Amino acid sequence: MIEFTLSERDQAQLDRTREAALICRKYARYHDENEGDFPPDELPEAAEFYANQKPLPEASADDTAPPVMMALQSIGQFWGDYSVRVRRTGTGGLGNAALSAAGTPEQQKKWSGLTLSMAITEPGCGSDPSMVSTSAVLDGDEWVLNGEKIFVTTGIRAQGVVLWATIDKSAGRAGIKSFLVEKGTPGFEVPYKEKKLGIRADDTAVYVFKDCRIPRENLLGLDESISKKTSGGFRGVMKTFNMTRPMTAAMGLGLAKAALDFTRDELTAAGVALEYGSGLGSQTAVAEKFMRLEGLYEASELATLYCTWMAGQGLPNNMESSVCKAHAGSAVRAITQGCIELLGPMAISRDHLLEKWMRDCRITDIYEGTGEIQRLIIARGLFDYTREDLK
Amino acid sequence: MISFGPTEEQEMVRDAMRDFAEQAVRPIARECDEASEIPADFLQSVWDLGLTSTQIPESYGGGGEERSSVTNAMILEELAFGDATLAAAATSPSGFANAIVDQGSEDQKKTLLPLFCTEKFHAASLAIVEPGAIFDASRPRTVAEPKDDSFVLSGAKTLVPLGDRASHFLVTARNGDALDAFVVARDAEGLTISEPELNLGLKGLITVGLELERVEIPKTARLGGDAGADVRRILDGSRVALSALMLGVSRAVLDYCVPYAKDRVAFDEPISKKQAIAFRLSDMHIEQEAMRLMVWKAASHLEKGLDVSRVAHLTRGYCAEKSLWVTDNGIQTLGGHGFIREHPVEMWFRNARTLGVLEGLIAV
Questions:
Q1: Which residues of A are catalytic?
Q2: Under an 8 A CB cutoff, do A282 and B138 touch?
Q3: CA of A381: which chain B residue's CA is closest?
Q4: In Å, how far are A189, A286, B73, B138 from A186, measured between CA atoms?
Q5: Sign of torsion over alpha carbons A21, A27, A29, A34
């Protein structure tokens, strides 16, 4: 059935997320201004927060499917702050999504308790991951890793990484595999944290691998075959995007929602009436523009939830993950930049978080595949083209 | 629960309407646009599918099926994929009938609903749009003044679908501070029905203007009788329905542009291999998917009886903006051919521009 309501349990979960998000928001400005000072793994309020949690209502058949709830909770969480989160233990890096999408049951069991970052980008390779030059060479029962990775999100706090490396450079994309590497493994170094426009509290790091040896069974999914014709291995790796892309969209949408909520409150306080259902001639320019931004948000949120719903149903969602990521990428830029325009000079003050949200969400259209890459993927789907047909 | 899974029945209805749109709607669309009329046997053929009568309760002669706004929105998308003009014409009686089913007084239901339960196509129309700039459906200039046991209606309406043959009009008007709707029969004294209007788009759909010069109607003609009605709900329903049409038109454009771009060669390769074209079509795909999800959500809220004004407003605004963008860029994708009436894209562009400024007309 097509429906868009929340069960009691769904609502209670989202209320809980919101409560946690409000705690995080208190620390948002501090960690934006103090880039070198990582948010603590456990906020001072965390213990009290968990101790006072009301039990959730019983699960029912009317509850929203877990992947869709995950996206909604992500939106709720990032509505609080991008980087500061209330967490018991560190879980939930991008690598964890890759692990759950492509890991064997044994790997899931062994690694899911760790926060895993995901290392793809290199100094010489971004949108075209087939150019990955970090290498993995089998030596006895061990892989030997060599190379450099940049822009690794959660790179410092993560306890391990899902690393993209090639096992046969001559095989191109077919030779690319992902590997699970734990922090502290000799030869795995984290030299520094990147300095950024936004999401400054997020520990985006550089990773260097020098003759780093890991067990053979750390190959994610355990598929060592290289099939040039189908690039099966590479596709396996790319498949992980089908859940990480909607989650990335959800993260950006959380910030966009925060911007809309703040702007709505400020506009209402300033006497701007938002009359839904009234004609254009009865709206102020400010109200009309604000509603347009709200519409953009609605569309983007739905595209994201739809994509996660498909994942939950086990339906192929390659196109949909690019659709929601591309949509959200553009939408959150337009929304946060538009909210600043609507509120005018007050909005650029660092007394408020709006300018930070605009900076923070600018990354949405870049990482996990730029908007351009998403459009390439969608176009290939539309035309039934391979990547050779359309680059 | 948040869920995007159509029911089996919805899938069946959608597939059947998709076939119907392909076989019976698309082939006559251009002809209707050029001639500014719709063959009566087409309207009858849609009537025979029972879209209007099956959703009327059995006690008034209908099929008594539960109405699903989501299913209706899917039907509209499919019909509009064939042609939005024909879709609007064929479903405009439902806009009137559903308003009576939902909000009519017992008396109104008894007298009006059986009209839609015969085998012959029957037209009755929503009369909501008004002439002149700064039209606002929620603030009509048409006025209803109470007088003894009657109301006196004064004002003007325009873009009333199938007004050349409609037996009744549901006229929205301001009644003091309230927004009300009134059932006005075609032969009411003081009502002048114009000749068919000449419009930019939806040309096949005959629309008329109404002049209401102190049209005196009984108090019982107010929608809902003494209790009145929630007219905003009708406007919400029409916004969702119009959005579904705009979605269907957008999908038609994309569906037309994809094979065109793959066939059309420039500088030694199909233009689909140029990012400038490929990215544009990707955006069309993104937007038609986003429009559909918004339509589904708004329709589902309507169906569940939830407050839908905000969602319907945002959906209509989004679909109006994006369907115009999609159709406009459909023309651009075809270049000079987009401008030529041999291809349907210019017609879809005119239809999208028209739909985006309308209110009323139809409802889900």
A1: 368
A2: yes
A3: B282
A4: 8, 58, 60, 70
A5: negative
- For residue B79, the enclosing domain spans 8-117
* Gap between the Cα atoms of A178 and B269, Å rounded: 36
The reply to whether A262 touches chain B by the CB within 8 Å rule is no
- How distant is the Cα of A103 from the closest Cα of chain B, in angstroms? 27
Q: Which chain B residues are Cβ-neighbours of A305 within 8 angstroms?
A: 2, 4
Is B152 found in the same domain as B73? no
Q: Tell me the nearest-neighbour CA distance from A370 into chain B, angstroms.
A: 13
B364 in a structural domain: no
CA A382, CA B279: separation in Å to the nearest integer?
A: 11
Q: Do A63 and B1 touch (CB under 8 A)?
A: yes
B242 with B338, same domain? yes
**A295 touches B: beta carbon within 8 Å:** yes
Which A residues, 312 through 331, put their C-beta within 8 Å of a C-beta on chain B? 313, 319-320, 323, 326-327
Q: What is the pLDDT of residue A157?
A: 85
Q: CB–CB of B73/B312 below 8 Å?
A: no
* Strands A205-215 and A188-189, bridge-based pairing: antiparallel
Question: What chain A residue is nearest to B2 in terms of C-alpha separation?
Answer: A4
CB contact under 8 A, A5 and B309: no
Span A82-108, pLDDT tens digits: 888 775 444 567 788 888 888 899 999
Confidence band for A231, pLDDT divided at 50, 70 and 90: very low
Mean pLDDT of A212-239: 74
CATH code, domain with A220:
2.40.110.10
Structure confidence by residue, pLDDT tens digits, A241-297: 788 899 999 999 999 999 999 999 999 999 999 999 998 888 999 999 999 999 999
For residue A151, what are the domain limits? 114-224
State which residue of chain A sits closest to B137, comparing Cα positions. A279
Asked which of A176, A199, A224 is the last residue of a domain, the reply is A224
Per the listing, tokens 């024909």 go with B86
Q: What is the mean pLDDT of residues B249-258?
A: 98
